[in-house]
Amino acid sequence: MYLLPDQSLWSGRLDSEHESSHYRYFQTVDLTGEQSEAKVALLGYAVDEGVRLNKGRTGAAAGPDAIRQAFAGLPVVNHINVKDAGNIQHDSGQLISTQQEYAERAAELMTQHPMTFLLGGGHDIAYAQYLAMKQVFPHQSIGVINIDAHFDTRHVGESTSGTSFSQIIDDDDQAGYLVLGIQPSGNTRALFDYAETHDVSYVLAEAFDDGISDEVSAKIQQFIEHYDVILFTLCMDVIDSAFAPGVSAPAVLGLSSHVVAKLAGKIAASDKVSSVSIAEMNPTYDIDNRTAKLIAYLMNHMIQSKFQ
Ligand SMILES: N=CN[C@@H](CCC(=O)O)C(=O)O
Ligand SMILES: [Mn+2]
Ligand SMILES: [Mn+2]
């Protein structure tokens, strides 16, 4: 079911009502859909049904609104206008129906705005993002870049938060899949075997211990060059749980926030990226809103990188 934008989420510290250099997003956000020229759109996936079906701890349905509240108080960068396009929630029935409903709205935003942030919610948001991209780019090859501790390539006969990328691989011979930040202890041998047999490229989390090497940068660059368009998705559990505790399945030995910011800024800046999904934010387990705030900062960093 679709929910209109909620004005009460958009508040923050007011430094000036008239001087634009003091503005924060809550002062400029478009909640009415009238600013069709907005460079950035937000669409929430207020759904944790996929996490529940994947035997995870629920709560991610509240993720999009927690992210909005953190983002609302940040300073506007580069005079960028942002439109809040509301939320989709899962009421009943099959999760795939909710993913399809979400894809319709996401596709519309992708055609209207240079950058759409898709705010989760479980990582089933990525399959909905794929369905949207297939509508917008029906004839283009899609390269999927996922920054994640997990492969999310399970096969269980229905959509869950752990199946998005095997669904894409099953659907689409043209698609490719690159995962950055894989935890050896967060994925079974079967998932590594699937990666080998299905040509899934991945970089282990430990490869980022000393930052982003030239080799990894080149791998990402070559992957982007190979495909017509890029589906970019970020699973917040890739970040060490000391810095991002508010997630469905926390990872220890995770990437640093700084490394993820650098990766996200670089990938989002590509002309081939028109949407970014940010998954698995779970406010129930957040501490002092730090995960929501980290996501808001990452969004602003990506906006800065893309529109500088
Ligand atoms: N979207 C998250 N997926 C992970 C969860 C792992 C866990 O529950 O520890 C997965 O299915 O592998
Ligand atoms: Mn994950
Ligand atoms: Mn994931």
From TrEMBL:
Keywords: Histidine metabolism, Hydrolase, Manganese, Metal-binding. Its cofactor is Mn(2+). It holds the Pfam family Arginase. Gene3D superfamilies: Ureohydrolase domain (3.40.800.10). Mn(2+) 2 binds at D148, H150, C235, D237. The keyword Mitochondrion does not apply. Its EC number is 3.5.3.8. It is an enzyme of class 3 (hydrolase). GO terms for molecular function: agmatinase activity; formimidoylglutamase activity; manganese ion binding. It catalyses: N-formimidoyl-L-glutamate + H2O = formamide + L-glutamate. The keyword Lipid metabolism does not apply. Transmembrane segments: none annotated. GO terms for biological process: L-histidine catabolic process to glutamate and formamide; L-histidine catabolic process to glutamate and formate; putrescine biosynthetic process from arginine, via agmatine. Coiled coil: none annotated. Pathway: Amino-acid degradation; L-histidine degradation into L-glutamate; L-glutamate from N-formimidoyl-L-glutamate (hydrolase route): step 1/1. Binds 2 manganese ions per subunit. InterPro entries: HutG (IPR005923), Ureohydrolase (IPR006035), Ureohydrolase_dom_sf (IPR023696). Mn(2+) 1 binds at H123, D148, H150, D152, C235, D237. PANTHER family: ARGINASE/AGMATINASE (PTHR11358), FORMIMIDOYLGLUTAMASE (PTHR11358:SF35). Belongs to the arginase family. Catalyzes the conversion of N-formimidoyl-L-glutamate to L-glutamate and formamide. This is Formimidoylglutamase. It comes from Macrococcus lamae. The gene is hutG.
